[in-house]
Fold this sequence. Notes:
It is a single chain. With 396 residues, the chain is of the alpha+beta class. The chain has a single domain, classed as CATH 1.10.630.10. It is built from 17 helices and twelve strands. A hairpin with a 4-residue loop joins strand 1 and strand 2. The chain is globular.
Amino acid sequence: MSLPEAHSSEPSLTAHILNDPLNPFPWYRVMRERYPVYYSREFHSWFITRYSDVQRVISDPLLFSSEQSIRARPTNKIQPTTRPLLWTDPPRHRQLRSLINQAFTPRTIANLAPRITEIVHAHLDQVAARGQMDVVSDLANPLPIIVIAELLGIPIQDQQRFKHWSDIIVSPARQQKKQAVIEMNNYFQMVVDQRRQHAQDDLISALLSAHIEGTYLTDAEILSFCRLLLVAGHETSTNLIGNALLTFDEHPEAFEELQSRPELLPGAIEEVVRYRTPIQRLRRATTVDTQLGEHHIKAGEIVSPILGAANRDETQFSAPEVFDIHRNPNRHIGFGHGIHFCIGSSLARLETKIALEILLSRFTSLRRIPDVPLQHVTSSFVYGVKSLPMTFRERQ
């Protein structure tokens, strides 16, 4: 195995990234400049940090396999029929995505806008008189959980269980993670069995009826998509909303401009995705011996493309450390690239846009409470804060 010459310095690099998870960006820059292809003994993985290399890895499923990256885990017990869409390679990935797209359509997402608006207003109504709120717990967390639960046809009394499962699955707690997956699978299997007997106007019923040339999704494939939608949809939207408000607080001039020109919000959201990418790191495995940069990577080894590092690559973005809501073009890869482009990205964008539009229209002088320390979400993949208390004034 060919390792970087400065491999002995790994503890300083890895430790700084892990010990300062809310500001890994200076270390990403060091890695791009000095160790763009870098083996981490702690993660048993090659860290890939330059935009061109990251894009290559996530765009070539034949050479960098999602499926084999799961098989490579020594404790993995996932059977081939239960692999989620995220960890499936072509040709089955293409079939699965086509079937899921029949139920999870752009129209389905667009039709959620009135309900999303209603949920946001309801949650802001609860805090308006107080003059302060925790953006995460009062809005960014409950919003996507409610939307996804209703989309799947899950009753309101079970929604907190969903949040609990989602938080555990993205955490490093392996034993609890296995138990959460089991509990979630049992729950979704119960719902699938009910919908098979009595179809309703929800996504699970639509997934059961989706087919191509007589091929239907198996129960295991439906369960895995429900898990993926719950976890990825919740974590992406929650952290995108939180990251946006945190970044706007750090750049009040941008926030003021958005209040006067809300039509700039879509571009501002894309810049938040680039600047504070909600999902920082992915996982792939090489299918054959390959060369990345100056390093030879053997077949079967794990590579970790770091989206958060690629999105600040100086060769791709002008002044990448500057938050610029007018950035154009903005070819970030915060939602991935190629066949695994995030299937829930349109939902995350819609929820974030509506949430921010309403916040901008209802409140002014949104400011983070400075003496409350920020705590990073407990995950080596997800970027966000656990809590974001802010004060505000309600518009008259």
